[in-house]
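Hmm, what's this shape?
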Amino acid sequence: MPTHRTPAEQQNADRLIEVLQTRLSALNDLHLTLKHVHWNVVGPNFIGVHEMIDPQVETVRRFADVIAERIATLGGSPSGTPTAIERDRTWDDYSLGRDTVDAHLAALDLVYDGVIASHRTAIDLASETDPVSEDLLIGQTGELEQFQWFLRAHLESPRGAVPHASETTETGAASAAR
């Protein structure tokens, strides 16, 4: 988007900045949630999941940085504070503490569902106003979907079914997976 904008272009930029801010908060929340899981996962397959989560944490942190820098590039002021995370959150805080691999992975699967769906909504908005932001979000969404696949592969039956498929809450998903 050009630096000197018409009122309509400025309105589009402001809306995009707002949407990117929600993505920044979601990514900050996700990387903290992933680290929380890393610290609290127990049971068989613990070490594999423990080691799988850290690269996701680092990648999601990098995604947040890229989004923040895009907000600044568009003329906004990115907010990475805990207050921003809480203000922008449209879901309940992650509620599992120390729990099994399967419980955490099922709950995280639902977390990824929400983050990916919101990223896709942001892609739709960006496609109308800013192809650079659209491309950035598309790339991130592809990697987030791959991370979700990693989680689901631990839980899936050979036919692709997951025990928590009908659940809509993290605690419900965790209970179904235990």
User: Anything to note?
Assistant: The chain has a mean pLDDT of 95.
